[in-house]
Write a structure and sequence with these properties.
This protein is of the alpha/beta class. It is built from 13 helices and 12 strands. 41% of the residues lie in helices and 13% in strands. Helix 2 packs parallel to helix 7, helix 3 packs parallel to helix 4 and helix 9 packs across helix 12. It is globular and about 80 Å long. The structure holds pyridoxal-5'-phosphate (PLP).
Length: 395
């Protein structure tokens, strides 16, 4: 392996920005006070928490008191779904979500199903876009919540969030969106999009791990998720993760300063890599929508290739990528997202996700495309299925 690795797994996590680390450090050292304390040391910490809350609220068109800090995206998703289900149970016990949600949403839905709730998992089309007609038809008088992710973590598809929000509002149903991949990557306005709850996570936009937030619209009857002290206006107990919150706020600030610029850089890298792969490697398929797509996402299926083998061989060449979903690696099931867009098991198994950041370079894209070409070629040479396929093609 030559030099630094080429990091193409920014949907799994991102590198913490040096400015973010710098913003966090004082709250480990001099400013270690508890934000709930009365003395000055505590109020400095409290100020840092308030400042981050204000920054984040302003990026969403929300009020500061609608932002609740959590230990990341998974907690925010769990909280939104479970607490909304409990609070609105007197109205009904039906929830609508999509088949391509992150497991933080899907497994929480399964948990709720075991506790007497009914969940409808709506289909997506072959590009991974939720079918609005199906969503509309799924609505019942007892539907209390719609949860659809803003953008998908595997194939990068961006959902018609504004339309879904309007539909939910029209029917008086709460709307939650898992925006972990979208927040700080795309402009989001909670009022214009009629979003009632929104989950985000710091480490997906160059912030620290283990910190995120849930936006909860004023007036929602959401109970506390962690019981204990009065932190987060009595809705999320536990001494605040002050360094994490300070880092989260700084990361949001940095991301929004350069939102358009970073997206443009990423899009150029993404499209260059897509073009190279398409030109140089036969029998492959771009997964996800070409237009309604996160600026950092490239996801390909290569026929006659096993995704895990491809990953390992790319790792040996110093390239960090992922086969669909980091959560499913280690299991033999193909990704639920790739199955939902209609890929046969075999094709789904041969998939590779590469997610860039604005820090990647065109030269890295060249090296990556070259490495994939070489590796896919070698793996196909060893594949009896490929051999059969070539024989048949020649007939
Ligand atoms: C990463 C991710 C999560 C989980 O966030 P954590 O902060 O790692 O708990 C949830 N949803 C989506 C779409 C994600 O990409």
């Amino acid at each position: 392996m030559k030099g630094n690795p080429i990091y193409l797994d920014n949907a799994a996590t991102t590198k913490t920005a040096p400015e973010v680390v710098e913003a966090m450090l004082p709250y480990f050292t001099e400013q270690y006070g508890n934000p709930s304390s009365i003395y000055a040391l505590g109020s400095a910490a409290k100020e840092a928490v308030n400042r981050a809350r204000k920054i984040i609220a302003s990026t969403l068109g929300a009020q500061a008191n609608e932002i609740y800090f959590t230990a990341g995206g998974s907690e925010a998703d769990n909280w939104a779904l479970v607490a909304a289900a409990e609070a609105y149970a007197p109205k009904g016990r039906h929830i609508i979500t999509s088949k391509i949600e992150h497991h933080a949403v899907l497994h929480t839905c399964e948990y709720l199903e075991k506790r007497g709730y009914e969940v409808t998992y709506v289909d997506v089309d072959e590009h991974g876009i939720v079918k609005l007609e199906d969503l509309k038809h799924a609505i019942r008088p007892d539907t209390i919540l719609i949860s659809v992710m803003f953008a998908n973590n595997e194939i990068g598809t961006i959902q018609p969030i504004k339309e879904i929000g309007a539909l939910a509002k029209e029917h008086g149903i709460l709307f939650h969106t898992d925006a972990v991949q979208a927040y700080a990557h795309l402009p989001i306005h909670v009022d214009e999009m009629n979003i009632d709850m929104l989950s985000a996570s710091g480490h997906k936009f160059h912030g620290p791990k283990g910190i995120g937030f849930l936006y909860i619209r004023t007036g929602l009857k959401i109970r506390s998720f962690l019981h204990g002290g009065q932190q987060e206006r009595g809705r999320r107990a536990g001494t605040e993760n002050v360094p994490g919150i300070a880092g989260l706020g700084r990361a949001a600030e940095l991301a929004f300063e350069k939102l358009g610029e970073n997206a443009e850089k990423e899009r150029a890298l993404r499209d260059y890599l897509i073009e190279k792969i398409e030109k140089e490697i036969p029998h492959c398929r771009l997964n996800g929508d070409r237009e309604q797509r996160l600026s950092n996402n490239v996801n390909y299926s290569f026929r006659f290739v096993e995704g895990e083998s491809l990953l390992i061989m790319l790792d040996m060449k110093g390239i960090c990528a992922s086969s669909g979903s980091a959560c499913t690696s280690g299991s033999l099931d193909p990704s639920h997202v790739l199955l939902a867009i209609g890929l046969p098991h075999e094709t789904a198994h041969g998939s590779l996700r590469m997610t860039v950041s604005a820090e990647n370079t065109m030269e890295e894209m060249d090296r990556t495309a070259e490495a994939i070409k070489e590796t896919v070629g070698r793996l196909r040479e060893m594949s009896p299925l490929y051999e059969d396929f070539i024989k048949k093609e020649k007939l």
